[in-house]
Design brief:
5 helices, single chain
Length: 82
């Protein structure tokens, strides 16, 4: 859910330009606990790798959002949804 949401927000759309880091953070925080699991949301927003999603000059190894979420999931250990 996080990956799809962030992808949608950070992609140009016919009706609006892609959102930046500040706007994405605000949207995730706004729906923390309602649309998004609060523990995963907190871990994602506190991750230093989250900032790197918006750093286009970063020449280091950047994890994909899916890889980042898998790493966070392992740390948070929330129960799987059936």
């Amino acid at each position: 859910m996080f990956a799809d949401t962030i992808d949608a927000m950070t992609t140009d759309r016919p009706y609006r330009k892609a959102l930046g880091e500040t706007e994405v953070r605000a949207e995730l925080a706004k729906f923390r606990g309602t649309q998004f699991d609060p523990d995963i949301c907190d871990a994602l927003l506190q991750s230093p790798d989250f900032n790197r999603l918006f750093d286009y000059s970063d020449s280091g190894k950047i994890l994909s959002l899916t890889q980042m979420m898998e790493s966070i999931r392992k740390k948070v250990r929330t129960p799987a949804v059936a």
